[in-house]
Amino acid sequence: MSAKIDDWLLEILACPKSKAPLRLDEEAGELVCDESGLAYPIRDGIPVLLVDEARSIA
């Protein structure tokens, strides 16, 4: 599953928990926050930035 987020959008998105920048993991289809240890899914090209929907990567 690959995901694509426009660069301009990725620059303004932040983790809702830590407020840290997110990085795109295209292969996993997720936006990852290394600071909070959470990965947010991208569904149908739309980032789901809800802490309850994120999975822990720590």
Automatic annotation (TrEMBL):
UniProt superkingdom: Bacteria
Pfam families (UniProt xref): Trm112p
Gene3D superfamilies to which the protein is assigned, alphabetical: 2.20.25.10
Family from the record: Belongs to the UPF0434 family.
Protein name: UPF0434 protein ACFOVU_03140
